[in-house]
Amino acid sequence: ECEPQYIPEVVKLFTQTAIEIDEGQQYDMDFESRDDVTEEEYIEMIRLKTSVLLACALKLGAILADAPKEDQESLYRFGEKLGLAFQLQDDFLDVYGDFKTFGKKIGGDIMCNKKTYMLINAFRLANEKQRSELQYWIGLQNPVPEEKIASVTHLYDAIGIPDLASARMQAYFEEALGYLDKVALPAEQKVQLLEFANRLMRRNK
């Protein structure tokens, strides 16, 4: 039998995605030993580690449906931006989520000093006193979990991190919807993707 014409394109997409996910995982591991991770580096890490997989799945569906190249690219970007919003929401809910609805213990990122969007920006925006307090909790050996989580969360609140993170999440989500809007299909044929995106961003409700 003749090989379907889209097979080389699918193989290329899978290969590219696997390489990018591996790069993202390596960045994440490298960040553990660094104290100078920038917001831009973090966003690129979560794009590679999380977003490209969702983007790949959406583009794959478009390829198999023989969609125009423009629509394939728009769906890829839709998944990529949605993935960024999702991961930033994950960071946010790890601090501010409800255990019952979020599904995992709150404060894990704080306890392991994970370089998240929130911690990176807390250090960037903190005043001298706040930065000193953050450094204290980051460097403290064997802290009482409840004390460390409450103290760092209080610092995040004082610095304005919740509003900053929420705004960035919403910006990526709106970018994602903008790319979905570009897909040349009637609105009723994009309802399931829109519902999927909305469900993904309502995990704390």
Q: What does this molecule look like?
A:
The protein has 205 residues and is mainly alpha-helical. It is built from ten helices and no strands. It has helices at residues 7-31, 39-64, 69-96, 99-102, 108-111, 117-125, 128-139, 145-159, 161-182, 191-200. α1 packs antiparallel against α2 and α2 (39-64) crosses α3 (69-96). The protein is elongated, with a radius of gyration of 19 Å. 28% of the residues are buried.
Question: What separation lies between the terminal Cα atoms?
Answer: 50 Å
Write the H/E string, N to C: HHHHHHHHHH
Q: In terms of structural class, how would the helical and strand content be classed? A: mainly alpha
**Unreliable parts:** none
What is the average of the pLDDT values? Answer: 93
